[in-house]
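User: quick one, fold this
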Amino acid sequence: MKSTLLLVSLLITLSYGALPREKKRAFLAECEKTHQTGLDIDEILDKWLIPTSDKGKCLMECFVLKKGLIDEKANINHATATPHFEESFPNDPQSVKKAESALKKCDALDLSQLDHCTKAVEILKCFRKNAKEIGLKH
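Assistant:
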């Protein structure tokens, strides 16, 4: 009986995308260890916050790099972003396409003069703005 309940609980968790959130939390926690911002990582995730301090920007650069939205030079990386979107929106190809579209619109940004951390934050802000405009839920 316990194993059946555990299996049902796991299936419910997978179908509603809770595991990707926990993975995102783990990424952010790992980045927090590196950058030591003292920020509340759960609040950042739950409220879609983007820190503005230098350390906070680098925290987010680390986070979006781990998620696969950018490469090591803080350039958009569509090849690694798509698998992240597929994991974030399992069995929802329409949301995956919306996420890809939201990120694609950020290709037009001229971020060549920015440091990696600021560049990553600008990409994240662009993505979130576009995602919101097209009705993509995080």
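User: anything notable?
Assistant: The two ends are 34 Å apart (CA to CA).
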